[in-house]
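Data deposition worksheet. Section B asks for the primary sequence of the deposited chain exactly as it was used as input, without tags or linkers unless they were present during the calculation. Section C holds the resulting structure in token form. Section D is free text for depositor observations; keep each observation to a single sentence. Incomplete worksheets are returned to the depositor.
Section A, Depositor: J.P.
Section B:
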Amino acid sequence: MTKNFELNLSHEELVKRTSKDCLIPKEMLKEDSKEYAALADGDKEALKHLVKAAKAIDEVFMQQDNPDNLEFKAYLEEEAQKGNEDAQMTLTLFNAQIGMNAVDSEANKIFLAKNTKELPGKGFYPTDLSKDEFHKILIDMLKNGDVEEVRNILNQRSMVVREGNKLKAVDYTEYFKKEFEYIADELEAAAEVSTNEDFNKYLKLQAIALCENNPNNDAYADKKWAELQDTPLEFTISREQYADEMTGTVVENEELKNLLEKNNIEPISKDSIGIRVGIVNKEGTEKLLEIKKYMPTLAKHMPYNDEYEQNIGHGDEEKQTMVDVDIVTLRGDEGTYRGGITLAQNLPNNDKPSLKIGGGRRNVYHRQIRISTSPEAKERRQKRLDATLAKDLHKYYNQEADHWFTIGHENVHSLGPKSGTEALGKYKNIIEENKADMGSLALLDVLVELGMYSEEEKKQIIVTYAADNFLKAKPNLSQAHRVRTVMQSKYFLENKAVWLNNEGLIEIDMDKMVPTAQKMLAEIIRVQLSKDFATGEKYVLDNFVWTDEMETISKKLKEIDKSLNGILKTPLADKLLSEN
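Section C:
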């Protein structure tokens, strides 16, 4: 049934949010880029198919995100065609955030249509399903012997629908059969012309995985993807779990938790699906690989490392690849610009079956997202530094140091406890992201000693991290990446490693930063090893405190930075799509 939509944002608000000051463009590879020109003809042809596959994932993601997304988008497009200016601006925002609901950089919740609300189960679960009813249905189903159905409901690859008084899981490959088969056909076509044999094997495995309800196929595809190192092209189907706020609640119900444990069911949050397409940057990748040889040493310096199994192997068996990528397009969950967009990823995540069959992990870094060289971007950075950071620390601020910190962050995702963190429920992602950040800082002295960084570069990483760690507004608990930022700022302030001087500017005690990070990292690992929801909740809530110092910096940031969101520009991808 067609819904009667009404636009929610006023004309004035739409004008503001779509202005160049508030909606910041991020441009991916251009049509005339040297990276594209250098590709072999076969890879150029393959890229066309991969871009088409990526575009198709938008419809999958939008259904996962909100069941009204597709219909609302169609409504906006129809109204925009009629010349409705407000609909045109709303459509611009919709396309930027790939959905009708989002959060901006000041933690404001944005609803593009009237009478909509935030859905904890997004589109993964029935929209009228409350947490309490969800728990009750699962309890009843388990008591009635529907164990396998509950297992499927609580896995990462299903959409959940009502079936009488029960719930039913529909595997992604069945629910999104049309879209997945289209994408699979494009991957097969790309594999026919791409010049790299390993990459082609991966594309074929991924195509099979999209068409069959068999988690083992995902495992084989992920395992092959994680082995790719020397390929001209990059293609990833990403599956991340930050959006689903319903599945993790099952550990909050003691009766349900006990029944799940009794039946050996581990609740795993739903995967939001996205696609990344790019061209591997050889020079950037070579620099990334410098750290690879240090991974086994870093693993030995992780707190309590004798109490858990690490994700990486050892020596020649180390299972970690790394690539720096020039981005052609990001679609679906990958391309959702909602107050920010990811700089890099370390995949597959711990819940994925490939890790159980001996697969490794792979880091992919997004060059176009991190590199901001425009005069406007430089001016914004300098204004931020002048308003927030003590003058004598400016010399250490280095945009490239943010990339070095991110490298550490992504690698630490491969270190630490390999399993059991699902028991932390809705706090799992916050705690894991916190671990990755603190590990990046905590291991700096080791990397200086090993020769990866100089003492000067260490200071640059510390100052750049600390200066950028203050936010424009207090986030909400659903924003894992931002919540962990507040937790860290509070912790460093509390431990006197960071403070504000009389002018309200950030000061840093260089000697305290790494030891403080080591202390917090040890606490985080202890929480993960507890495998206890209450322990995780207490740790997050004890540290998720918006302090006076944060509010002081926040007010300054709002004065100098009016940006609220961003939008991806993909000129090369658009050109390739137009040629098909």
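Section D:
The first strand starts at residue 23 and ends at 27.
The longest helix spans residues 41-65.
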